[in-house]
UniProtKB/TrEMBL annotation:
It holds the Pfam family VWA_CoxE. It comes from the Bacteria. This is VWA containing CoxE family protein.
Length: 378
């Protein structure tokens, strides 16, 4: 999203409306915001109806969210809060991107003792991570070479098992007066796939959040194309914070950015919000996606099922690591887990850092699907 300080003051309301839509998980690209402002300029505007038509034409809400778009327009430009969708204030999923985050570190102690129950109620709080030694050095060192690989469209020179580099071969033929002892070959490069970590920071995951964030920091430091998001009742991108080399400083920065530590969880809506932003959903395309969560979705799990199916279609490999699987008696018998099991490539034990690092370092190796494994266990 473009910065307001670089634009004329008259553009502030229109930029603010676009940001409002982004916060409510509308897919609004920067180019659409620019088009919206240009359309308003072309129309005059002579009335609020012109602004509304410009917004509809350029910001392009999907048909199923047209009523919600209209409600936001009425609320923002007219102050008509009665037009808001019923229940939206409690159920909205806010998205926070760390690309423009403040550099000031915020240290705050978490006094809440809960975390054993799963709920859908939002609770905003901060978190300070204790200063422990980094136990993930070996994982960080091995990660880049252990991730699944793909063939790039870029090529490199090779001496065998490649395709003829016709351009270079002809150039050498000309320079050597027709005498070339051997043809020149090229092959497509092999590069590691992207890695995407989605970390549940709700109250039911409180005992594991610190270890998961340290694992995420090691992943970002070890892999060039790793992305990390947290979710609870909100969605927050913390990749930028975790790029700080010092682990304790990185986690302090992440603690300042995430607002919904140890609160409720709305896993389905937050994952759908992630997929609704084109720039974010692109992170999942062809990536090894690992979700660190107990997947204790409250109420209807239809949104979770939809989100997981869409994630699976984009990802190279979709894995769910749940601390509940550390119990030998665990079975994916809840309605939510049963619904998403067919689209999961892996459902593994996420109760310890050792189990998680061993699993992530094995992602390049083929394995039976989660459904096949857990049917045998059952």
């Amino acid at each position: 999203m473009m910065r307001a300080e670089n634009l004329p003051r008259a553009t502030t309301p229109f930029l603010g409306f676009a940001r409002l839509l982004r916060r409510h998980a509308f897919a609004v690209a920067p180019e659409q915001v620019s088009g919206f402002m240009q359309a308003v300029t072309l129309l005059g505007p002579r009335s609020m109806a012109d602004i509304r038509e410009a917004a509809l034409a350029t910001l392009a809400p999907t048909p199923d969210r047209r009523d919600e778009f209209e409600a936001h327009f009425q609320s923002y430009f007219y102050g008509n809060t009665s037009a808001m969708v019923e229940g939206e204030a409690d159920e909205e999923t806010r998205i926070k991107d760390d690309s423009g985050a403040n550099d000031e570190q915020i240290a705050a102690e978490q006094q809440e003792e809960g975390g054993e129950l799963s709920s859908a109620m939002e609770q905003l709080s901060a978190r300070e991570f204790r200063r422990d030694n980094d136990r993930l050095t070996a994982f960080r060192r091995k990660l880049a070479s252990a991730l699944p690989a793909r063939r790039s469209f870029r090529t490199v020179r090779t001496h065998s098992r490649g395709k003829l580099d016709l351009r270079r071969s002809l150039r050498e033929i000309v320079s050597a007066d027709g005498d070339v002892p051997a043809p020149f070959l090229r092959r497509r490069r092999t590069v590691p796939r992207k890695m995407l970590l989605l970390i549940d920071v709700s109250g039911s995951m409180k005992l594991h959040t610190s270890d998961y964030l340290r694992l995420a920091h090691a992943a970002v430091q070890g892999a060039d194309r790793a992305e990390v998001f947290t979710f609870g009742t909100r969605l927050t991108r913390i990749t930028g914070a975790l790029r700080i080399r010092d682990c304790n400083q990185a986690l302090a920065r992440a603690a300042a950015q995430v607002d919904d530590w140890d609160g409720g969880t709305r896993m389905g809506p937050t994952l759908l919000a992630f997929l609704s932003v084109p720039r974010f959903s692109a992170f999942a395309r062809g990536a090894a996606v690992v979700i660190l969560s107990d997947a204790l979705e409250r109420g209807d799990h239809a949104e979770l099922q939809t989100a997981m199916r869409r994630l699976s279609a984009r990802a190279y490999r979709l894995s769910l690591a749940t601390p509940l699987a550390g119990d030998p008696r665990f079975r994916p018998a809840t309605a939510a887990l049963s619904a998403i099991l067919p689209v999961l490539d892996d459902l593994v034990d996420g109760s310890s850092v050792k189990n998680l690092t061993d699993f992530i370092l094995s992602l390049a190796r083929p394995a039976p699907t989660a459904e096949a494994i857990w049917k045998r266990v059952s």
